[in-house]
Each structure stands twice: as C-alpha cells, then as structure tokens.
Amino acid sequence: MCNASSEGAVYANVFIQGDLLGGAGSELVGYQTANNNSNASAPAENLCWVVGNAIEDMRVVATVNDGLGDFLVWLANDNDELWMCNASSDARLYSLEPVDFPLNDDLIMAEPVQVREA
To answer: Which of 7, 83, 4, 89 is nearest to 51 (CA)?
Structure first.
C-alpha cells in the first residue's frame, strides 16, 4: 500500500501481509453482512476506528475505495495528525500506519532532472 502526492512525495509505503488481526476483527465491531453497497464501508471504518482508538483518541475523516474491493480509512487524532488504515467490509485489517512527513523528503527537495535532446 502506498500513499503519494502528485508531486512525488511518498507518505506511506507498506507491504500488506494479510489480516493483522487473524480474523478477530469481526469480534471487535460486531460485523454484520451489509445488505446494500451504501453501507459497505461501515465495517472497515468501525474496525479502523476501534483499533486506532486503542492507540490514541481518533476520529474518521475520510473513507475511499482502495481499488481492490476494500477501503482506505483516514483517521485523525486530537492534534490532527493523520493515520491511514486499510480494511475490508468483512472486518479484516490489513494496515494501520501513521502518515507524517514524506518518507522521501530528501529526494523531493533535490533539483529536478533536466532532459536535453542530443
């Protein structure tokens, strides 16, 4: 899972290795199958919020489809510091990472490459 800006700043780059909770996520959020797509993200949001709140007080600020059938849930703490969570609609947790300054900050500040025709 990678989060990057259009300028090439990489904020998170995580290797997904499967469900971090080994199937126990449904017990944390009382998972129930959604009957329609309008509520499909609710179990993912709830799971990310519950696990995030075990670390510190957090709130959900945005949820988007991750393009693979699951959801990226953005959380913020009381200081508005962001966390990125990847979870499924059937309460599987794949990642929960703080998002801070770009991981490649030194590369972003470097002079841009100039291409010249020979």
So the answer is: 83
Reading the chain (118 residues) residue by residue, the pLDDT tens digits are 777 778 877 777 776 777 767 766 766 666 554 444 557 888 899 999 999 999 999 999 999 988 888 999 999 999 999 999 999 988 889 999 888 876 666 654 445 555 566 5
Q: Which two tokens stand for residue 19?
A: 């469900």
Backbone angle region of 88, left / alpha / beta, with phi > 0 → left and psi within -120 to 50 → alpha:
beta
**C-beta separation of 29 from 39 below 8 A:** no
Instruction: Tell me the three state secondary structure of residue 29.
Output: helix
CA distances from 111 to 10, 106, 107, 108, 116 (A): 17, 10, 9, 8, 15
Global confidence as pTM? 0.68
